[in-house]
Write a structure and sequence with these properties.
- The chain contains seven helices and no strands.
- The chain has 151 residues and is an all-alpha fold.
- Helix 5 runs antiparallel to helix 7.
- The N and C termini lie far apart (70 Å).
């Protein structure tokens, strides 16, 4: 019993101390998605879906929920955002060549079709894409790919 109390006390102290260390935030002054939206021409419906389900992890500006200030959750969220931007950063769209843009849209389609995006951890709190939303995004991305496959 005494060892259990010591372990719990150490865990509590560690939990309190970790609150003072914050991971770096994805917090640009502006969420720059203009180039992406100008080129790919999403409808207002698609823009709303992208805003709600994609841009937090795939742009240079994340809108963090309150619980992102609580460690160890803050580290998990930072890792997801960093990984998301590593794979596809909409704010960097103008830096991609046509082939890469086509490939990124192809990956977007594949990830949605396979149910990989948005990630499970995100959808537990923010909700999944409905079947209609999935179909709409896939249809838009398929059409947008035509811009880049002709280059």
């Amino acid at each position: 019993m005494k060892i259990t109390k010591k372990i719990l006390l150490i865990a509590l102290v560690a939990l309190v101390l970790i609150q003072f260390y914050r991971p770096e935030r994805n917090d640009a002054e502006l969420r720059d998605v203009v180039d992406f939206e100008t080129e790919t021409k999403p409808s207002e419906e698609i823009k709303a879906i992208l805003q709600a389900k994609c841009y937090d992890c795939h742009s240079n500006k994340t809108t963090y929920p309150w619980y992102a200030n609580v460690a160890p959750i803050s580290f998990l969220i930072a890792d997801h955002v960093n990984e998301g931007n590593e794979h596809f950063n909409i704010s960097e769209w103008s830096n991609y060549d046509s082939g890469k843009k086509d490939h990124k849209l192809d990956e977007l389609i594949e990830e949605i079709e396979e149910g990989e995006m948005p990630e499970v951890g995100y959808t537990l709190i923010h909700g999944k894409l409905s079947e209609n939303e999935k179909e709409a995004v896939i249809s838009w991305a398929t059409e947008a790919r035509k811009i880049y496959s002709s280059h």
